Predict the structure.
Amino acid sequence: MTQRERKTTIIGAGLVGALLATLLAQRGFAVDVFERRPDPRKAGYAGGRSINLALAERGLHGLRVAGLTDEVMRLAVMMRGRMVHHRDGHIELLRYGRDDSEVIWSISRGGLNVALIDAAQKAGAHLHFDRRLLSAEFGEQDVSLRFHDDSADSVHEHTAASVIGADGAGSALRGAMNAKTPLGERIEELGHGYKELEIPALPNFPSISLPPAAAAALARGETCAIERNALHIWPRGNYMCIALPNAEGSFTVTLFMPGQGDPSFATVSTGAEARALFERDFADAAPLIPDLEQDFAANPTGVLATLYLDRWHVHGRALLVGDAAHAIVPFHGQGMNCGFEDAVELADLLDAHADDTPWAFAEFERRRRPNAEAIATMALENYVEMRDSVADAGFLLRRELGRVLAERHPDRFVPRYSMVTFTRMPYAQAFARGAIQDALLRELSNGKQGIAEIDLAQADALVRARLTSLE
């Protein structure tokens, strides 16, 4: 195996690019990583989206493979389930799994990115910051890359045998690849956007406006204004608000609304209008966001869209991974987890087939694209569930029945959310199996008001007849 075959170039030092660089460097590859942003360890994190990340089993597996679990988990906060805040003021916890062995973890995008960049550098990867990709020329043997060095205001050239694009949804490498060979790019906008706000940690809360319950929590020495170990959600039909915990006690709050209609970002466009919306529709959250008006005015309105490509690689010279290949909406908390799966799969393939990179790139796409398309669909479906269904009686009955069947048939019936979140079952398999289970739940619960009305003997028979054993 030649030295050339053990070299690789990665565009993007975000989450997926930094993890992939770490995994490849640990396997003996000479890795160069080019990132358009300044080094966040020096300049501070200034990435694109900052919605807190939900770290689940797939992502944890990638960290384990890289030997980074202990370091990263110090940044994470456990979330047992969705804490649903209903319009009438009632609050209830809908657990994600059976118990505290099945949870997800809230983690800051910026903190995680810095930890992964440190890991990549320690593993031996060469990181080049302030390098904005200008062009890529794909030759028979090499890829010629031109970068603008934003710190020195100069042009930098780099030649690579192959290049991997981990530069996000707006990938510059994807644009260059598409100009060379059409990738069949389709971007489907959701028609909804998001705006980020913040619930401060109690020690940092303006005391003059501290609500009574939060003041009592502060007096007890607590740092969180609301339950720390949950993803809080205020479902309101066509729009919603969520809050994810941060390690120091604050919560990152995200308002999701349509672009048009009422309410929407067309009708709620100022800080004062946002305050009025929260006081009307998110009454228990409103007093916990003292800087709501300022944050709403200062923070950009994010765009939500799904990216589809017909191909992810070009002539064995360039490959796209993570959001650069399959950006999805964030409502299943799987964007990063899916990207980390990409990194592990690709590192294994390149390690085993470094003498045949074109084959490794093609095989990577063959394995991963059906799974990326499956989680894209499930993420869109989960938005409807989060903003609407969690307050729907029929959904809650099906959810309860699913838990009952999972207890009675643990080898056959696993809720789709659990398959996606707590296992590494391929997304496409979880999607197909979940469709069968959902049809079964709807059939059994149709016309029923409660679990006591359901014939569990019939349910047992249907599970055995329609679902194969997972063992």
Remarks:
- The CA atoms of residues 332 and 378 lie 7 Å apart.
